[in-house]
Design a protein that fits this description.
Blueprint lengths: L11 E5 L4 E2 L2 H17 L11 E2 L12 E2 L2 E2 H10 L5 E6 L1 H14 L5 E6 L7 H11 L8 E5 L9 H4 L9 E7 H4 L18 E5 L4 E6 L4 E3 L6 H9 L6 H11 L4 H20 L9 E4 H12 L3 E6 L11 H18 L11 H16 L3 H4 L1 H11 L29 H22 L1
Parallel strand pairs: 1-6, 1-8, 2-3, 6-7, 9-14, 10-13
Antiparallel strand pairs: 4-5, 8-12, 9-11, 10-11
Helix pairs in contact: 3-12, 4-7, 7-8, 9-10, 11-15
Length: about 450
Amino acid sequence: MNSFKSSVSIEKCILSFSHDRYSSRKKANAAAIAKAEREIASNSNGISHLILRAVDDKIDHLKFLFLINGIPVMCYALGNLLISSLKEIVIVGSEEVEQVATTFLETVGTQGKKISFVREDPNKLNLFNTMQLGKNRLNVKSDELVLFQPGDLPFMFDIEEILHDSDTQNYNLILWLNSRQMMFPDHKHKPESEFVRRNYHYRALCKETNELHEVKEPNIYPINLSVVDSDIIEHLHSTRKDGNIIKAGIRKILSTPSRILKLLPIMAHHALHFRSDLKEFRKEDKYLFGMHRDNFDRAVSVLLDTKFTTKFHSDPAFVSDVDALEDWEDFESLTHYANVKYGEEGLRHIHPFGEELLHFRKAKMPGLKTQIDMYNNFPSYINSTYQALKMNRLPFLHGNESQYFPQEPNHENNGSAQKIKNAFSWYFNKCNAFKLERVS
């Protein structure tokens, strides 16, 4: 087993603003609609009309370019890293992503960080190639973990726990899992407190704390690229949705039959104990995959022939990515609510890089609107996207297409208006605490 040990903290990051594409817009829309219809039919906690790219799009339908409060999603994500303790960032993306990133950094500065850009390969839009492009630009030591992060996490501004975790010196791959119980401990008694709605397909039993966790796949990956093959992250990421991550494990097992013998006692323990142990917490439970956490860690360590562990966190921003129109509207509603309370400077109260983001919007977005087709009339673009995916509302008013129109509190798909208030309150408190920590 590979036993390299990393330095104490993570200093380098690959930030991906690249995404694969469907062969046609027709197929992309059909896939997005079908997924949402399945979720609606099964009464899922989270409904997702996915934002998908297609080869024949006249305007690149890239989620990282979408605007939240008039500011690209990618600028939030990059801003989050600028205020972190990272020292080097490699950005991977399209020509338009490079144009936005360059303009953004010229406006807000690099905050003392070394930042470089690598253009995505339109013929190889997979995660494996994205990681390779980033790795080739970095000077990575053999014992060094880097952070791989997709760029669709606009409010994940506090990542210091990840970067300075003491276990970065003990493992070559760490999966920071999204635990519903840790992020939203009151969700059973106060459903409106769960202001990020997601479907949790996995179950993890933790012997050390005697707890059951409903788990969702990670969105960031601390990884030693000198030891762990990039293809495993490709497997993990590409099959992570809807509980299909088990397929990645099966494919890996079949490709490495020599490790099956080492896995047998681990899988035997799982077969003998997991279901009975789960029933101590819940008599009935619907899930797609579950395991004891320590047993899972041992299995993956054997499977990958490297030191691997999983961890949980309590920050909802880690699960709140922008994969779907519903996700985009959660953030548009959040920033709209902030503006209602505090005026056009509302973003400053819920995002620690808000002042710089607003300055960029005022100084540079008018120019970018004339250069990037999506921004020529973004409200109209979003409205047409909602219509194409058969959504039952339009987010911008026809009479005034520059004005966002939140869902009515009693709308059947809106849930309680308290959800937005809870989101605002959480980010408001988190932002203030984060600013105080930076000052101290």
